[in-house]
């Protein structure tokens, strides 16, 4: 019998409500919650496939279901009981703490944890153990936003809400590809624009993303020049008399000092530094300052920078100078990247924070938290932030690491240092839901955690809205909730470190709903009287509807917008202009490294792809890893589409195919952040396995926020001369495809270049590419053919040992026709396009039996590719769209309506709408000459 459970999506910070459909222990469906105020029933391509990532076949292949222990590094982990696992962890942590002190251990946690999970871990580290060495992957995405808000407005509190897009006269988007990173919010922007055609949109980004396509004005600035842009806009506003001196005088301080700084940021100098037209700078300043209401939306392009805090503060300066804050449609709105980055900030889950936005450096704040927890004190020594923590472990200073719900062996910058840290640490605990993450390979102890659909607690989205996360099915295997794992460990450690003293963790783990609510209530009490006071927000109220903070005791609802009265949480009640200065990126381009590499998100993928990477359909839009370059740069370097290149920074090098696109500026390159060693393989010159894109990125960080500069690294791009190539593709039984991918990870490390991804939509498939200087030993090829199911006697095969060529094909009869079920092309892959199409589209293949074995065979007329997928929901390709548009007439909107009526593309989640609209515009006839 189908059950329905209201919960929250585990992906981006929009915080969409979902309704989970389940039958017994299995999640069977998901749809958007029409009553949730974050999304009103909408879901993106990732959210709408959540149920597929929870399928039984997926769970059995990729989930960590039982505690596992390695006796020695490099060995296969074996199953142990929870008592054995936590006993081992307790003994080891206690021994390290006694021998080397509390700061010899560190906790690295995640913005994908629930607020209750975060709270317990924070109390465990700072309250029980006595170390502030607890940080989170939110340091990599939101800490500059935290610092920017505190520097200017006095508290880490986004003042705006999603409804403001409906009231804005100008939306200023900086460093955010919301069309891909926050798709449901972007749908609301599109709808607001349609309802108010007078609305103006300005987009500021080095890349012309899908978000930029909606803009009336696109500022293609040079990477890292945001502070100069914002200062230049303020210079223009001052010159033109567009600032609100009356409001500034009543509600702010520090403006005179900032005026002196921006005096030298003239339009000519700013245009030169930023690489934009002076006229566009003037127009951006005018639109921002003179709009009835200006809303700025910003994300990692501002945050992930060595000037991250300065960028955030400089943009907020513009709001303060023009009084664009504290009213409908106006305000600086930082978009959180993860589902609960906000919740982590609220409980003090960063190395420099304490619960309820308290500062670790403030003695009164430390005393308040110590009193709340019932401990003598909270340590005052600053904790290690993310980059510092792994550097300390690499240096031998931190001996034991506890990693929960995050994958630093993929996501942290400067992977050589991170992996050295994981290897050198004496003890590594990984608390995870997915066994397939790269970090699991380094764990001495693996602890299985629950995940979406199984968890219970709360999350906070970008607009300060707290939503319930509810379990729809029981935890599989021996998995436990993250907070309950931490509580069980903490109680055991208490008996070692504080024998005979009442527990600091009086939360029931045998009655999870009661236990998690007890954690929540303690967190609520910690917020009393603070800027994020939620003492009026109970679980009972949250059962009825999500609520925004602050919501004090006795209040019926939370606050939609902040600072409407012009009073700010500073000692004098005034906002503060931040007199920040422009500084270039940490690693400017130079002759040896002439390209600027930027990283960012893909439309249909999430973080390290431990969840989305289980679905072949989510690889339809971007099927394989690549680095994007401007076609002119490719032409100058003699590079063709698909050529393999060495992408190299001062920290490492990877081999990856190159792709040309006008979206990327000259002397720039882009690569998606998701491609780690789980999907992109190869060997370095020293014989070490490569670690994906973050082998290249720099750990240089903002001195205030400690957030690393993931948005820029200086690189060189050189053609890789790897003459031998391989492509293997096969349909596999649903219950084995992901296992095969795991087996192939060992094979991938044998080649200078390799990539392995899921393949297929309705069926489960795997695709492997590799390249090398020469053919590998026969044993390697035999292993590949076996894994792809083409090693049997029923396979068609061809081999030329002298040329290093092998081909193997498996055809299976379906009724009256034979179809290609798997193939391996080695040594000559020039016929890959049509052979892959034959398999992918499940076309009749019997007529091509002999041709399949001929190296370099030309494409048969009857075998034509359907093209590249644009719409994930309905599997609509660019070729189908182009064919439909060729028959269209009328306006852009009429052509779009006709296209959607015919093919349905863009009518479900809407994630493909920006691309559809771009194709519609390109199909319009050129205007006739007068």
Task: Give a concise summary.
This protein has 930 residues and is of the alpha/beta class.
- Mean pLDDT, rounded to whole units? 95
Helix count from the secondary structure assignment: 29
Q: Measured on Cα atoms, how large is the radius of gyration?
A: 28 Å
Strand content: 15-25%
Describe the model.
The chain has 930 residues and is of the alpha/beta class. It has 5 domains: 68-139 and 340-528, Rossmann fold (3-Layer(aba) Sandwich), CATH 3.40.50; 143-334, Dimethylsulfoxide Reductase, domain 2; 586-720, Barwin-like endoglucanases (Beta Barrel), CATH 2.40.40.20; 722-865, no CATH class; 869-923, BFD-like [2Fe-2S]-binding domain (Arc Repressor Mutant, subunit A, Orthogonal Bundle), CATH 1.10.10. The protein is 31% helix and 19% strand. The chain has a 7-stranded mixed β-sheet, sandwiched between helices. Strands 28-31-32-30-35-34-33 form a 7-stranded antiparallel β-sheet. A 6-stranded mixed barrel has the order 23-27-24-26-25-29. The longest helix has 19 residues, at 82-100. It is globular and about 85 Å long. Residues 2-58 form the 4Fe-4S Mo/W bis-MGD-type domain. InterPro entries: Asp_de-COase-like_dom_sf, BFD-like_2Fe2S-bd_dom, BFD-like_2Fe2S-bd_dom_sf, CT_Nitrate-R-NapA-like, MoPterin_dinucl-bd_dom, Mopterin_OxRdtase, Mopterin_OxRdtase_4Fe-4S_dom, Mopterin_OxRdtase_prok_CS. Its cofactor is Mo-bis(molybdopterin guanine dinucleotide); [4Fe-4S] cluster. Belongs to the prokaryotic molybdopterin-containing oxidoreductase family. NasA/NapA/NarB subfamily.
């Amino acid at each position: 019998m189908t059950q329905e459970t209201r919960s929250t999506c585990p992906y981006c910070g929009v915080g969409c409500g979902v309704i989970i459909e389940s039958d017994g222990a299995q999640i069977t469906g998901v749809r958007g919650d029409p009553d949730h105020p974050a999304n009103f029933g909408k879901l993106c391509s990732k959210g709408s496939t959540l149920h597929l990532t929870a399928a039984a076949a997926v769970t059995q292949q990729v989930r960590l279901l039982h505690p596992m222990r390695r006796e020695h590094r490099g060995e296969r982990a074996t199953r142990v009981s929870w008592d054995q696992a936590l006993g081992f962890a307790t003994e080891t942590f206690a021994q390290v703490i006694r021998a080397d002190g509390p700061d010899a251990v560190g906790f690295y946690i995640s913005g994908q944890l629930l607020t209750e999970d975060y709270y317990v871990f924070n109390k465990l580290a700072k309250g029980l153990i006595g170390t502030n060495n607890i940080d989170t992957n939110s340091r990599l995405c939101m800490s500059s936003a935290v610092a920017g808000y505190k520097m200017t407005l006095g508290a880490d509190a986004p003042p705006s809400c999603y409804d403001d897009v409906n009231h804005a006269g100008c939306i200023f988007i900086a460093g955010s590809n919301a069309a891909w990173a926050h798709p449901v919010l972007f749908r609301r922007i599109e709808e607001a624009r349609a309802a108010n055609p007078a609305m103006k949109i300005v987009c500021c980004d080095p890349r012309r993303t899908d978000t930029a396509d909606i803009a009336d004005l696109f500022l293609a600035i040079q990477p890292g020049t945001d502070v100069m842009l914002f200062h230049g806009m303020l210079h223009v506003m001052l010159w033109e008399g567009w600032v609100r001196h009356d409001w500034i005088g009543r509600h702010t301080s520090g403006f005179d000092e900032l005026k002196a700084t921006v005096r030298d940021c003239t339009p000519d100098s700013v245009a030169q530094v930023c690489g934009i037209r002076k006229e566009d700078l003037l127009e951006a300043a005018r639109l921002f300052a003179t709009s009835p209401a200006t809303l700025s939306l910003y994300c990692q392009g501002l945050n992930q920078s060595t000037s991250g805090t300065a960028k955030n503060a400089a943009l907020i300066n513009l709001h303060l100078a023009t009084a664009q804050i504290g009213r409908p449609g106006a305000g600086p709105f930082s978009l959180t990247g993860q589902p609960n980055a906000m919740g982590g900030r609220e409980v003090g889950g960063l190395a420099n924070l304490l619960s309820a936005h308290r500062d670790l450096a403030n003695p009164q704040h430390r005393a308040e938290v110590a009193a709340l927890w019932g401990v003598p004190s909270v340590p005052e020594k600053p904790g290690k932030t993310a980059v510092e923590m792994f550097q300390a472990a690499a240096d031998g200073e931190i001996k034991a690491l506890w990693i929960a719900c995050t994958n630093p062996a993929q996501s942290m910058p400067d992977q050589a240092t991170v992996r050295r840290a994981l290897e050198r640490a004496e003890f590594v605990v990984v608390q995870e839901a997915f066994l397939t993450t790269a970090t699991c390979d380094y764990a001495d102890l693996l602890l299985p955690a629950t995940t979406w659909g199984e968890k219970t607690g709360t999350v906070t989205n970008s607009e300060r809205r707290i939503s319930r996360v509810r379990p729809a099915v029981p935890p599989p295997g021996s998995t436990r909730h993250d907070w309950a794992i931490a509580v069980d460990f903490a109680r055991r450690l208490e008996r070692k470190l504080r024998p005979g003293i009442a527990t600091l963790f009086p939360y029931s783990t045998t009655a999870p709903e009661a236990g998690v609510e007890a954690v929540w209530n303690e967190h609520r009490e910690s917020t009393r009287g603070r800027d994020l006071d939620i003492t009026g927000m109970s679980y009972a109220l949250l059962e009825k509807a999500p609520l925004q903070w602050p919501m004090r005791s006795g209040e019926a609802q939370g606050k939609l917008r902040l600072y409407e009265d012009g009073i700010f949480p500073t000692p004098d009640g005034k906002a503060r202009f931040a007199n920040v200065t422009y500084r270039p990126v940490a690693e400017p381009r130079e002759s040896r490294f002439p390209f600027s590499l930027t990283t960012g998100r893909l439309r249909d993928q999430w973080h390290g792809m431990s969840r989305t990477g289980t679905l072949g359909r989510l690889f339809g839009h971007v099927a394989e890893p690549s680095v994007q370059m401007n076609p002119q740069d490719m032409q100058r370097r003699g590079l063709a589409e698909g050529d393999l290149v060495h992408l190299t920074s001062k920290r490492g090098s990877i081999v990856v195919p190159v792709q040309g696109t006008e979206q990327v500026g000259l002397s720039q390159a882009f690569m998606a952040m998701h491609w780690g060693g789980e999907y992109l393989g190869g060997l370095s010159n020293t014989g070490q396995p490569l670690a994906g894109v973050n082998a290249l990125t720099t750990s240089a960080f903002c001195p205030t926020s400690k957030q690393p500069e993931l948005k820029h690294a200086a690189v060189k791009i050189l053609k890789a001369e790897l003459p031998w190539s391989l492509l293997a593709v096969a349909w596999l039984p649903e219950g084995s495809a992901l296992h095969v991918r795991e087996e192939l990870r060992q094979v991938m490390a044998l080649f200078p270049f390799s990539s392995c991804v899921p393949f297929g939509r309705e069926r489960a498939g795997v695709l492997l590419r590799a390249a090398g200087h020469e053919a590998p030993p026969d044993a390697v090829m035999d292993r590949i053919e076996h894994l792809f199911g083409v090693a049997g006697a029923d396979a068609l095969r061809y081999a030329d040992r002298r040329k290093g060529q092998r081909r193997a094909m498996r055809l299976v009869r379906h009724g009256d026709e034979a179809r290609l079920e798997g193939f391996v092309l080695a040594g000559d892959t020039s016929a890959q396009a049509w052979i892959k199409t034959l398999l992918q589209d499940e076309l009749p293949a019997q007529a091509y039996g002999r041709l399949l074995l001929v190296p370099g065979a030309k494409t048969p007329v009857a075998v034509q590719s359907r093209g590249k997928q644009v719409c994930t929901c309905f599997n609509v390709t660019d070729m189908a769209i182009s064919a439909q548009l060729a028959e269209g007439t009328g306006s852009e909107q009429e052509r779009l309506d006709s296209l959607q009526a015919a093919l349905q593309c863009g009518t479900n989640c809407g994630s493909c709408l920006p691309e559809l609209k771009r194709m519609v515009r390109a199909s319009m006839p050129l205007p006739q000459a007068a």
